[in-house]
Write a structure and sequence with these properties.
This protein is α+β, with helices and mostly antiparallel strands and 113 residues long. The protein contains 2 helices and 5 strands; from the N terminus they run βββββαα. It is found in: Endoplasmic reticulum; Golgi apparatus, cis-Golgi network; Golgi apparatus.
Length: 113
């Protein structure tokens, strides 16, 4: 019998409405890296439980650092925004601009290696 590690239920509007970690390994808190033939899925989980995912080309290195930087941008431009309400979709032009710059900078750094 195959092991089931996680169960996610997402509403039709795209919101996560249920999550349960079913890992047979004690102390496991979720996905960090899932590698497939055609993509890698990297995850960073903040202390508050908010998860950040990046889907990248297989074998792409240093995604942990990019995800931590994205988390820093999220805290600076989203959480410190007095008009943002928790659990609502993020609509912040400054956040969009800085996320785009961070991803482009990371892409340039990868090409230089």
């Amino acid at each position: 019998m195959a092991a089931i590690y996680s169960l996610y239920i997402i509403s039709k509007s795209g919101g996560l409405i249920y999550y349960n970690q079913l890992s047979p390994v004690s102390g496991c808190f979720g996905i960090e890296l899932l590698q497939a033939d055609t993509f890698d899925l990297n995850c960073f989980q903040s202390l508050t439980g908010t998860k950040f995912f990046v889907v990248s080309e297989p074998g792409t290195q240093h995604m942990e650092g990019l995800l931590k930087h994205i988390y820093e941008l999220y805290t600076d431009y989203v959480l410190k925004n007095p008009f943002y309400e928790m659990e609502m979709p993020i609509r912040c032009e400054l956040c969009d601009i800085n996320l785009t710059q961070a991803v482009q900078k990371d892409r340039v750094a990868l090409l230089a290696r």
